Description:
The protein is mainly α. The protein folds into three domains: 2-81; 113-272, no CATH class; 276-327. The chain has helices at 2-23, 30-102, 117-142, 148-186, 206-222, 228-243, 253-270, and strands at residues 189-192, 195-198, 277-279, 292-294, 302-307, 309-311, 318-320, 322-326. It has a three-stranded antiparallel β-sheet. Strands 4-8-5 form a three-stranded mixed β-sheet. The protein has a two-stranded antiparallel sheet with strand order 1-2. Strand 6 and strand 7 (318-320) form a beta hairpin. It is elongated and about 130 Å long.
Amino acid sequence: MAKQTTVTTQKFDEVAEVLKEISNGRDVEPGKAKKAIEKYNNMTGDLAFYKKEFEEKDAKSNKVRRKRQDELEKLNEEKTALKKKVNELEQRLSSVLGQKITADNPDIADLSDPHRPTKLVEKFRSLYDDEWTNAYEELDKLCSNKKEDKIISVLVDLIKAVDNICGAISVQQIGLTLAVIKDDLTNPKLSKGKDTYSGDKTEMNKTQENKLTEMVKNLRKELAELSVSPVCKIFYDYKLKHTLKGLKMDEAPKMNEYVRRLIHIIWMMKSQDPPMVLVWPDAGKPVNKDRFTFYTKSGDVVAFVVWPSVLLHKDGPQMSKGVVQGK
């Protein structure tokens, strides 16, 4: 193509020379003019050819460019999919390792767990710093004839009631789930219409029972969020009206928000294995300053309790200090 371009350039120079002579008023021999016209026509054909050839190469180049772009997009999609699979595998591996490390060892935290004890304690303390104050102020307005310690006593009774209900439901949930799964594993059944068929029941040994218990507890911990709303409904229907006597909850939006968050956090605490524990000191007893800070007054003796301290499990390490009024 470079040689053809050179020839075309020569033709253009010869035609340009003839045109220049004509423009300067010089006479041009008919043969030379005819030859220049032929060269011009040839040059026009050459340019049309080059134009077509360029367009074809440009189209081919665009096709190659689009193909490479499509390949690049496909590679990026594959890269994204592989990265997602790697992240999923990392999470699964982290979860499995976390379960193996933390099994029967609650003092070691599984950092892949968004509801691990340290996170729950942070939420529990945040509940006291924020929603508890709002709930107290709302109760103060709705129960204007009650003193400070009486209003706080209502809030303390509420926490204790939630703790008791969540603890009871948690124990029953594990027990019932274990019983159903154990029965179905050792005594499978087939239902056909009105008839039910079963074989000879087998027995689980202690190792199998322990393995099943561990699996059920881990499963319940992983899926504990599913039970939050039903547990709230149970508490509202069964216990709240006795705990907050005379208080119309539809007139107390801040109290409602506080109660629901309280149930959520404590339920997740009770879903740990072993469950986390709230500690309440007795009024009139010496203040354990390692476990409690003061509300508005300090002293050596507990006047009344405001907020419980939290242990990782029964007789376990302390996770968060509580609050008491001293005297």
